[in-house]
Amino acid sequence: MRVALLPEVTAFLKRQHGHFIDGQPREGTGAERIEVINPSDDQPIATVATATSSDIEAAVASSLSAFNSSWRHTLPAQRAEVLYRLADLLEQHREALAQLETLQSGKLISLARNFEITTAAAFLRHYAGAATRITGETITPSIPSFGEERYTAFTRREPLGVVVGIVPWNFSIMIAVWKFASALATGCTAIIKSSEFTPLTMLRIAEIALDAGVPAGVLNVINGKGEAGSALISHQDVAKVSFTGSVPTGIAVGTQALQSRLTRFTLELGGKNAAGFLPDCPIDKIIDGIFESGFINQGQICAAAERFYVPQPLLDDVLTGIKQRLEQLQPGDPLDEQADYGPVANRAHLEKLNAAFAKARQEGDQVITGGHVLDRPGCYVAPTIIRAHSPNASLLHEETFGPVGTFIGYDTEQQLIEAMNAGPYGLSASLWTNNLSKALQLIPQINAGTLWVNMHTLLDPAVPFGGIKSSGMGREFGDEFINDYTELKSVLVRY
Ligand code: NAD
C-alpha cells in the first residue's frame, strides 16, 4: 500500500521554494529554477531557486552576523540544549520528513523513517553532548626565568566562524546534520548547500530548527548547483568548508578553498570499498553479508562495499546464492511499504550506471544478474552482480555508487590483502571471519579509514569516520571533528 502523503507534505510541495536565510524562507533573487524530480516516476514534484550572488551574499552576511553577535558567545550547555531539542523535533516530524526524502531521492520510506531520521537524531544528540567537551590544555613552559617572574600557558579551542556544508543527494538529512551539528556544537554558524537533486528536506529542517531555538542566521540554507557551492567557498567571510561528495568535486573544492584565503576544508569523498570473506565463513553468512554490504539504498551509501573478494573454491556457490537473493527483490514505489527495492536517485545517475555496465561487458566481465535498467517508469536499475574478468577490471577500481557488486576469487591471504588495498581509495572495508586472531592480524594491513569485522556500513556517532588516500581528508563524528571546526589559540602568561 502506498503511504498517503500527509497534508503538511502536500502543502509544503506547493510552496515556492528557494533558500532559508536569517530565520526565513526566501524565494531568491534570480529567475533560474531547478526542477525536483521524483525518481520513482520521473515526475516533477517542486521547483527550487538557484542562488544568485546576492542570495549568497545575504546568507554569508547573516551567518557572520549571527556568529559574531550571539552564537560564538553562547554557553556550551545552551548550544547543547538547542541541538537536543532539534533532535526531539526531528523525531516528532519523522513521517513528514521521511515522505519528503522518499519523494525527492527514491529512498524506501522504511529506510527514510527508521534509518535516516533516527540516525540524524542520534547524531544531533552526539554533537549536542560534544558541545560541553571542547577543552584545551595547560602547559608549564620550560623557558628560564631570570628574576621572580613565572610563566604559564594554556590552549583554547575557538570556533572558526561561518562554516559551509556542501552535501550530496544520498542522505540529504543525515549528512547535512553531520555538517551543521558539528558547526553549531563548536560555536560556528552554518550554511548548508543541499544537492540540486534533493533540495527540499533541509528547507523544512531549517524551519524546524528555528522552532527548536536555533537563532536566526545560525543555520542558513542555500540551493543551487555546483556554482552556488563554488561561490560560497570563494567568499572571503567563509572560514571553513565541509564537503561530502565525489572525488573530482572534492579536489576542486579543496583547491578552491586553498586559493580563496587558505579557507579550512575537510573532504568526505567516494570510495570503492572492499569486503573480504575468509575461508571459514559459511556460505549463507557470506550471502547475507554481501546483501547488507552492497545493496541497501540501492547501493547508494558512501561506505557500501562494491568489490567482493571470496575464496576461489567458494566463488561459484556464492555467486549462485547472491543471484537468487537479489532476484527475489520486489522493485516498487518507494512510498509503498511492501516494496523492498527502489529506484536510484536520479536519471543522470542511472545513465552513469548504464555506461558502467556497457564498459564491463566490453572488457569481458561476466554479468551474473542484472546489468540493465528495469523496464518500467522511473530510474530503476536491476541489482547487479558482475564476475570480474581480471584484477584489472574497471569495475574493481571505479566507483559506481549503485546496486552493483563486482566479484573475484582469491587463493592466498597475501592476494586478498593486496587486492583489497589496490586502487586509489580508502574509505571503508570489511573482513568477514569467525577467526578473531586472524582478523586482528589483518586489521593493520588493510588500508581504510573504517574497517568493519563481520558487518559493513554501520556508522556510529561516537566512532570517527573519514577516508584515507583519495577518499578524503579529516574525520567526522567522535570528538575528532572538534579540531576541524575550531582554531587552536595558545596563550602564554607571565605572572
Ligand atoms: P558531487 O560531488 O557531484 O556533488 C556533491 C555536492 O557538491 C552537491 O551539492 C553539488 O551541487 C556540489 N558541487 C558540485 N560541484 C561543485 C563545485 N565545483 N564546488 C562546490 N560544490 C560543488 O557528488 P554527488 O553525486 O552528489 O554524490 C555522490 C558522491 O558522494 C559519491 O562519490 C559518494 O561516494 C560520495 N559520498 C561520500 C560520502 C562520505 O561520507 N565519504 C557520503 C556520501 C556520498
Would you mind describing this structure in some detail?
Helix 4 packs across helix 5 and helix 4 packs antiparallel against helix 7. A 7-stranded mixed beta sheet has the order 14-15-16-13-12-17-18. It is α/β, with parallel strands linked by helices. It is globular, with a radius of gyration of 24 Å. 38% of the residues lie in helices and 21% in strands. The mean pLDDT is 97. The protein has 2 domains: 287 residues, Aldehyde Dehydrogenase, Chain A, domain 1 (3-Layer(aba) Sandwich); 185 residues, Aldehyde Dehydrogenase, Chain A, domain 2, CATH 3.40.309.10. It is built from 15 helices and 20 strands. Bound molecules: nicotinamide-adenine-dinucleotide.
CATH topology of the largest domain: Aldehyde Dehydrogenase, Chain A, domain 1
The tally of helices reads 15
Give the biggest beta sheet.
7 strands, mixed
The molecules bound to the chains, other than polymers, are: nicotinamide-adenine-dinucleotide
SSE diagram, text form:
Layout: H1 7-14, E1 19-21, E2 24-26, E3 33-38, E4 43-49, H2 53-69, H3 76-92, H4 94-105, H5 109-130, E5 138-139, E6 151-159, E7 162-166, H6 174-186, E8 189-193, H7 200-212, E9 219-222, H8 226-233, E10 238-244, H9 247-261, E11 264-268, E12 273-277, H10 283-294, E13 305-311, H11 315-327, H12 347-363, E14 366-369, E15 384-387, E16 404-410, H13 413-421, E17 428-432, H14 436-442, E18 450-453, E19 472-473, H15 481-485, E20 486-494
Parallel strand pairs: 7-8, 7-10, 8-9, 10-11, 12-13, 12-17, 13-16, 15-16, 17-18
Antiparallel strand pairs: 1-2, 3-4, 5-6, 6-20, 11-19, 14-15
The structure holds nicotinamide-adenine-dinucleotide (NAD).
Nicotinamide-adenine-dinucleotide binds next to helix 8 and helix 9.
